């Protein structure tokens, strides 16, 4: 089952993108019928299937759909869309721990049928809005990544944009105003059925269950803000709304006025300037208020990157020194919080309660480490990789000592060479030192 976009769909997406790019004022109509095209719905199901994920409020799983027949299931869903009797199910509320232990983050889990329809709509809408997104937007975009945003921020501070507004929005996904968001979408989309579909998702009720299983409903038609994290359409809608801020920055000449640049990944953004970070903060606070959003004042700060570091998308950027001669430079490296998070994940995976066979444990551990190092592969990596490698070795040795009841600390039976050799554990320091231009401080 190939996840490569079929050529027929790619042709449609290219036409939509080119039309949007060449005619910035054009408003698209007759899009809704593309959502229920058989090839688009089928590809949307394949993408949703590949992303897996938990079932929604109806409890239906991909395995059940596959067993009952995918084509028949898609045919029924298509008929609902064609007849306009489709209505989204309530979104199941779940929570996950916030990075760094700062409480919990709510997630909204739509049913599989809703995820498939949202994916189909995204296949149609994304090329249109991709043509409109500002160059400073990196979040949830094709051929752009969070690491690209980090690289650009690092490049700018090396060019002297070292007065930094490190901004944080308070509950961005939960506070996006529906009316203003729909107006942002309607600037490009005039198809009333497509707008109706988006509004249905925004107004879908949220189902929560207490510890004793009691069902509680919230949201619904009376809810006027928020697009739940976890939905397929939510990242695109959140990026569309954030683009209003980025576009306003450009159109009002803030780059020249503040001698600065914005780097944004959804609601995570920094403004890098030459001596005007305080003015940029005042301007940002006022604009966000007009957009119905709020800066988290406790987590928003102004910094001088030549003297103090700041964290952005899991990396720490700012002054560092070369270990050999002590010379200072402006660098980037995995943040302490990011290193601590991977250590905690390794600790949890190699707990005494894990009874899986070692080959399965090793496979899962290497997948975890490989994914982490694939993201944290830029900048000064030696110290972070060393810390992770040392922690992994200690946890693996302790895990195997307890499993095999080995005496003492097990350093002879489970040496570093044995763990990273015969046992096949991935050693991060063997993957290279990363690439980062060194910007020496004068």
Describe what this molecule looks like in 3D.
- This protein is of the alpha+beta class and 442 residues long.
- The protein is 47% helix and 14% strand.
- It has helices spanning 7-22, 32-35, 38-51, 62-68, 70-83, 112-130, 146-158, 172-175, 178-186, 192-202, 234-251, 254-257, 277-290, 336-349, 358-375, 382-404, 416-420, and strands at residues 91-97, 104-109, 163-168, 205-209, 215-219, 260-265, 268-273, 301-304, 310-312, 315-321, 328-334, 439-440.
- The strands form 3 sheets. It has a 4-stranded mixed sheet, with no helix packed on it. Strands 6-7-3-8 form a 4-stranded antiparallel sheet, with helices on both faces. Strands 9-10-11-12 form a 4-stranded antiparallel sheet.
- Strand 6 and strand 7 (268-273) form a beta hairpin.
- The termini are far apart.
Stretches where pLDDT falls below 50 for ≥5 residues?
none
Computed structural class: alpha+beta
Topology, number of strands: 12
What spatial order of strands do you see in the largest sheet? 2-1-4-5
Percentage beta strand: 5-15%
**Overall form:** globular
The end-to-end distance, rounded to whole angstroms, is 56 Å
> What do the pLDDT scores average to?
92
The number of helical runs is 17
Radius of gyration computed on alpha carbons: 24 Å
Tell me the helix content: 40-55%
Short description:
The chain has about 450 residues and is α+β, with helices and mostly antiparallel strands.
List the helices and strands and how they pair.
Layout: H1 7-22, H2 32-35, H3 38-51, H4 62-68, H5 70-83, E1 91-97, E2 104-109, H6 112-130, H7 146-158, E3 163-168, H8 172-175, H9 178-186, H10 192-202, E4 205-209, E5 215-219, H11 234-251, H12 254-257, E6 260-265, E7 268-273, H13 277-290, E8 301-304, E9 310-312, E10 315-321, E11 328-334, H14 336-349, H15 358-375, H16 382-404, H17 416-420, E12 439-440
Parallel strand pairs: 1-4
Antiparallel strand pairs: 1-2, 3-7, 3-8, 4-5, 6-7, 9-10, 10-11, 11-12
Helix pairs in contact: 1-6, 3-5, 3-6, 9-10, 9-11, 14-15, 14-16
């Amino acid at each position: 089952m190939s996840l490569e976009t079929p050529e027929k769909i790619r042709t449609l997406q290219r036409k939509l993108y080119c039309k949007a790019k060449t005619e910035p004022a054009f408003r698209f109509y007759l899009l809704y019928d593309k959502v229920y095209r058989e090839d688009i719905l089928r590809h949307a199901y394949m993408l949703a299937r590949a992303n897996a994920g938990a079932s929604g409020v109806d409890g239906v799983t991909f395995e059940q759909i596959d067993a009952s027949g995918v084509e028949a299931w898609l045919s029924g869903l298509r008929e609902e869309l064609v007849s306009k009797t489709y209505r989204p199910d309530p979104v199941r509320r779940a929570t996950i721990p916030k990075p760094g232990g700062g409480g919990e983050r709510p997630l909204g889990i739509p049913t599989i049928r809703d995820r498939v329809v949202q994916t189909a709509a995204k296949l149609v809408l994304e090329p249109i809005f991709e043509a409109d997104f500002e160059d400073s937007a990196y979040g949830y975009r094709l051929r752009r990544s969070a690491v690209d945003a980090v690289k650009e921020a690092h490049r700018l501070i090396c060019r002297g944009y070292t007065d930094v507004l490190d901004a944080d929005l308070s509950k961005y996904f939960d506070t996006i105003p529906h009316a203003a968001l729909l107006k942002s979408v309607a600037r490009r989309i005039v198809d009333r059925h497509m707008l109706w579909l988006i509004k249905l998702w925004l107004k879908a009720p949220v189902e929560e269950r207490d510890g004793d299983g009691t069902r509680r409903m919230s949201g619904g038609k009376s809810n006027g803000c928020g697009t739940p994290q976890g939905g397929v359409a939510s990242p695109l809608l959140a990026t569309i709304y954030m683009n209003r801020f980025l576009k306003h920055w450009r159109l009002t000449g803030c780059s020249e006025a503040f001698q600065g640049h914005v780097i944004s990944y959804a609601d995570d953004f920094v403004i890098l300037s030459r001596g005007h970070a305080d003015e940029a903060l005042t301007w940002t606070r006022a604009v966000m208020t007009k957009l119905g959003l709020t800066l988290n004042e406790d987590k928003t700060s102004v910094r001088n990157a030549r003297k103090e570091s700041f964290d952005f998308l899991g990396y720490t950027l700012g002054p560092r020194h070369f270990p050999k001669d002590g010379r200072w430079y402006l660098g980037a490296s995995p943040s302490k919080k990011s290193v601590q998070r991977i250590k905690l994940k390794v600790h949890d995976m190699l707990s005494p309660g894990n009874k899986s066979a070692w080959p399965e444990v090793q496979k899962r551990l290497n997948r975890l480490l490989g994914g982490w190092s694939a993201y944290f592969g830029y900048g000064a990596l030696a110290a972070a990789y060393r810390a992770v490698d040392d922690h992994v070795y200690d946890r693996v040795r302790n895990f195997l000592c307890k499993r095999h009841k080995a005496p003492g600390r097990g350093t002879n039976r489970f040496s570093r060479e044995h763990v990273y050799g015969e046992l096949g554990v991935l050693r991060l320091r063997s993957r290279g030192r990363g690439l980062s231009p060194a910007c020496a401080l004068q």
